[in-house]
Amino acid sequence: MLLSFRRRPVPLGPIPALYNFGLLVASVVMFAGCLQSTMAEIAETRWLWQRSKTPFEWIICFPMGTRPAGRVFFWSYIFYLSKFYEFTGTFILLFQKQNLSSGHVIRNAMVVIMCFLWLQFAQSLQIFVLLSSTGLYITMYVYLSLCRMGYAPHFENALRYCQIAQYVSLLLASIVLIGLHYYKEGCSGMGAWLFGAFLDLSSLPFILVVNKQKKQRHVFNNTQKGSITSKTE
C-alpha cells in the first residue's frame, strides 16, 4: 500500500530483467520437462487405456480415478510453485509505478487456487494448459527480448493476440473435453475444470478492457502532444 503512494518509480536496476529471464528459463524447463514426461507416460501406460482412448484423448481427458501422482503431476506441482514466483512481478510493477489494477492481483491469486485444484483432484486438460501457458511465456519473453535488442520488428498488440490465440485453443480443447466426458467413460476432475473455465471466461473481458483503456490513453496522450505542439507554433 505504501508503494502505491509514491510519486516517482523506484530504480530497480537489473532486477526486472533478471525476473523476466528467470521466468523464461523456468518456462523452458517446465515445457520441456512436461512434454518429455507426457511422452514417457503415454509409452508406459498406453496398454491400460489404448482400447478406449488415443494419446491425444488421454492428454485432454484423464481416466476417472486417476491419482495426482507421477512424473506428469510433478511438473504440475512445479508450475503451481512458479505462480508464487510470479507474484514478484506484481511488486516490480508497483515499484516502477506502472498501472496495476485489482483485477491483475485477483487474477494471479485465482490462478494459484486453480493450480492447487489441478493437483488435488487430478484435473483433466492440465497438460494442455501447462504446455500452452509455458509455450506462451517462452514466445512472449523471447519476442520482447529480441525487440529490445533490435533483432525483431515490433508488432503492436502482438502479445495480446498471443493471449487470445491461447484462449481460443483452450476453448476448442474444452469442447473436446466435454465431448469425451459425456460420450465416453468420463474424465477426472471435472469440478476443478469448471472452476478453471469460469476463471478464464471472467478474465477475458478484463484483458480486453485493459487493452482498450491503454489504446484510449495512448490516443489521449497523442492528442495532448498535438495540441501543445500547435500552441507553440
Task: Provide an overview of this structure.
It is built from 7 helices and no strands. The termini are far apart. It is elongated, with a radius of gyration of 21 Å. With 233 residues, it is mainly α. The model is unreliable at 1-5 and 216-232 (pLDDT under 50). Helix 1 (15-49) runs antiparallel to helix 5 and helix 3 (71-95) packs antiparallel against helix 4. It is a multi-pass membrane protein. It comes from Ceratopteris richardii. Belongs to the ELO family. InterPro entries: ELO_fam. Its main location: membrane.
* C-alpha end-to-end distance: 43 Å
Query: Whole-number average pLDDT?
Result: 78
Number of strands: 0
In helices, the fraction of residues equals: over 70%
Are there runs of 5+ residues with pLDDT below 50, and where?
1-5, 216-232
Task: Assign an overall shape.
Answer: elongated
Strand content: under 5%
How many helices? The count is: 7
Global Rg: 21 Å
Structural class: mainly alpha
Order of helices and strands: HHHHHHH
For the largest beta-sheet, the strand count, sense and barrel status come to: none
Family: Belongs to the ELO family.
Keywords: Fatty acid biosynthesis, Fatty acid metabolism, Lipid biosynthesis, Lipid metabolism, Membrane, Transferase, Transmembrane, Transmembrane helix
Enzyme class: transferase
GO biological process, one term: sphingolipid biosynthetic process
